[in-house]
Structures are given as structure tokens and as C-alpha cells.
User: Fold this.
Amino acid sequence: MVLLGIGSGAIGCLGTSQSTSSSNESKSSTTSATFSSIQSAILSPKCGTCHVSQRLGGVDLSTYAAVLNYTKPGEPDSSSLYTQVKSGAMPQGGPALSQTDQQKISDWIKAGAKND
Ligand code: HEC
Assistant:
């Protein structure tokens, strides 16, 4: 009467697939900065008085398209948006951006300078 699972012998083979992959995730030091986060946290408050509400030096940083003029996607060191803050030249007359803010700009450019 009682139907035992005859012959299958499958005793629920639990966890036989032990993935022993060494996880090297700890070295991802990118801040995953997006354009919108950079715009609201850096460009608007720290550059905006000269490059958003005004165009000092003819430099407009008010929109993504405008910012791209100073950005070479994938190459922060060829992008004046980054080199100017890295060197401390911008914000002009003010304290340099924090390392974190500089890193965010660099990371965003490195990741392709997307309109995200
Ligand atoms: C107090 C005003 C002021 C602020 C704040 C300021 N800038 Fe500027 N910026 C200027 C002026 C004036 C110029 C053009 C003359 C020059 O290069 O010195 C300029 C030029 C630039 C240029 C073009 C440089 C080149 O030679 O290609 C970039 C890029 C730039 N600024 C980025 C920024 C960024 C990014 C910030 C914010 C972190 C910022 N600026 C904040 C005044 C300012």
C-alpha cells in the first residue's frame, strides 16, 4: 500500500555544488556616480554661480550636453571638467573639491560620462 519512492535513491542531494569562487569584490572603489548626482551635489552648488547662472569664461555647465563639451567619456585625465578640479584651478577662488567629489567626477567620466 505504502508507496515508497523505490529505486530513486535520490536523497535530495543538497548543496553539492559548492561554489568555491574566491570573491574579489572588495577592490571596486568606484562610487557609481551618476550625472544627476554630480549635477545636484557638485556642479550646481559648487560651480553653478559661475557656470550655470552665468557663463564665466564662456563655460556653461548647466546641462548634460553642455558639460560634455568639457568631458571626454572614458578619459578623465583628458577631460577639463576633471583636470580643472584635480589641479585645484576650479572652483575658481574657492576651496578645492573634496577627494570624494573629485573621485565622483572621475568615476562618472570613466564609466562613460552617461546621461544617467
Ligand atoms: C568664481 C567663479 C567660478 C567658479 C565657482 C567655478 N569656475 Fe570654472 N571658470 C571660471 C572662469 C572665470 C573660467 C574661465 C577662465 C579661466 O579658465 O580661468 C572658468 C573656466 C572653467 C573651465 C574651462 C577651463 C579650460 O581651460 O578649458 C572649466 C572646465 C571649469 N571652469 C570648470 C569648473 C568646475 C567643474 C567648477 C566647479 C567645481 C567651476 N569651474 C567653478 C570661474 C569659475
